Structure formats: structure tokens, C-alpha cells
């Protein structure tokens, strides 16, 4: 059994398991839930995840004068932010980021498993030219084996993005995926709404939600 205790809080940030979150997860996980409800409640959880991810970014002190002439010693949001969904499932999280960060830049990466080598392979990347100087929210709803996540993170690192500037936001994950990412990229932080029990023999998470991308985009077979 994989132990992830060393990564919790330091590398992995799990949303507070409130009654409201668990109720939304119950709807999303139910195989009989309609696509309309799956999308609605998934998007609610995604917004919570993005908020948590944004809270890990740096802030700068900023004093403002209030309406009564007093000074409020506040903070300013970090600039130079880019969201990078991993095509296709990661694009389900893009709207949640756009809703919370007006005018945010969006890059894209497409990574799929090579049929011959069975290893993740980069097929497409479109990223801002100055991404090395930006903080990156990497978006993908499922962190299972960690192969795709690690390949995407490597693309960012190869483009000059420091590991500590990458926050990986994922809907659900498993200990196997956490171990795979955190052992290879120990300064990358992960934000998730749930840590599942394990992977089954087909690399599906248990209890899981099924294929997130298919359920979200309505392409279930």
C-alpha cells in the first residue's frame, strides 16, 4: 500500500470535506445522474478547486483608501497567470478558471498514450511565449497513474517554468498518482477535491466517477 502522508499539506491540498462537497460528489459519482446535473455539480466543485489553487499563488501587499478615508492594508492578486488545460478532459475546467480570473491567458497541451510504446506522448502544445515567467494552473480532472500529468509538467519545465510555479488542479486522484507526480516533481503542488482508495486492474479509480471527459462532454458510448 502506498503511503502519501509525507505529501499531504506540503504538496497535496485537499478541499475541506464539508457536507456540501460530499453531497455534490454523491451526485457526480452516481452513474444514473443526468449529464445536465453531472456538468452543473462538477462545475461547482471545479470553482472551489480553482479558488483553492489561486490561494496558493503569491500575493503582494497593497494599501487602499476606503470610502471613509481610512487605510486598508490589503493584498493584490498575483499577476502573470496562465491556465493550461490538458486536452480534452482538462478543458472541462477552463470555464471555471475564466469565471474567476478575468482575461486569464490559456495555453493547451495534448498528450496521449502512444499505441506502440504505451508511454504518454506530446502531440500538441500551444503556450504563451513568456510562460517561463508565469505561474501556471495545470488543469486535468483525473490524476490516476500520473503518466499524463508528469508528461504535461515536463513540457512546462522544459519551457522554463519553475516547478514551484506550477499548481496542478485535479478533480479526483489516487495515492498512486500522487506518488508518481510528487516523487518526480517534489515542488509542484496538487489541489484536489478527493483522494480515492486505489486503482483497479484497468487503471480506473475506485470508487471513482467513470470517464470524466465522456460524462462531461456527452460522448459516453
From TrEMBL:
Q: Which Gene3D superfamilies match?
A: 3.40.50.2020
Provide the species name.
Lentzea xinjiangensis
Family according to the record:
Belongs to the UPRTase family.
Q: Which domain of life is it from?
A: Bacteria
What are the GO MF terms of this UniProt record? Answer: GTP binding; uracil phosphoribosyltransferase activity
Q: InterPro entries under this entry?
A: PRTase-like, PRTase_dom
The opening ranks of the lineage are: Bacteria, Bacillati, Actinomycetota, Actinomycetes, Pseudonocardiales
What is the protein name given in its UniProt record? uracil phosphoribosyltransferase
What Pfam families does the annotation carry? UPRTase
Q: What is its EC number?
A: 2.4.2.9
Q: Which residues form the Phosphoribosyltransferase domain?
A: 16-219
UniProt keyword annotations, A-Z: Allosteric enzyme, Glycosyltransferase, GTP-binding, Nucleotide-binding, Transferase
Pathway given in the UniProt record? Pyrimidine metabolism; UMP biosynthesis via salvage pathway; UMP from uracil: step 1/1
Cofactor(s) the record lists? Mg(2+)
Amino acid at each position: 500500500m502506498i503511503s502519501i502522508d509525507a505529501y499531504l499539506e506540503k504538496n497535496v491540498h485537499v478541499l475541506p470535506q464539508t457536507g456540501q462537497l460530499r453531497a455534490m460528489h454523491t451526485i457526480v459519482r452516481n452513474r444514473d445522474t443526468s449529464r445536465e446535473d453531472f456538468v452543473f455539480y462538477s462545475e461547482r466543485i471545479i470553482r472551489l478547486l480553482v479558488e483553492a489553487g489561486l490561494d496558493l499563488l503569491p500575493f503582494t501587499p497593497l494599501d487602499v483608501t476606503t470610502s471613509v478615508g481610512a487605510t486598508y492594508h490589503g493584498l493584490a492578486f498575483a499577476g502573470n497567470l496562465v491556465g493550461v488545460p490538458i486536452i480534452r478532459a482538462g478543458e472541462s475546467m477552463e470555464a471555471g478558471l475564466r469565471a474567476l480570473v478575468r482575461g486569464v491567458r490559456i495555453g493547451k497541451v495534448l498528450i496521449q498514450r502512444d499505441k506502440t510504446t504505451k508511454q504518454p506522448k506530446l502531440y500538441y502544445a500551444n503556450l504563451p511565449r513568456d510562460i517561463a515567467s508565469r505561474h501556471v494552473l495545470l488543469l486535468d480532472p483525473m490524476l490516476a497513474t500520473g503518466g499524463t500529468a508528469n508528461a504535461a509538467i515536463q513540457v512546462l519545465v522544459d519551457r522554463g517554468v519553475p516547478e514551484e510555479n506550477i499548481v496542478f488542479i485535479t478533480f479526483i486522484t489516487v495515492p498512486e498518482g500522487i506518488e508518481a507526480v510528487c516523487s518526480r516533481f517534489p515542488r509542484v503542488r496538487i489541489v484536489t477535491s478527493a483522494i480515492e482508495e486505489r486503482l483497479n486492474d484497468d487503471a480506473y479509480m475506485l470508487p471513482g466517477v467513470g470517464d470524466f471527459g465522456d460524462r462531461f462532454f456527452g460522448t459516453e458510448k
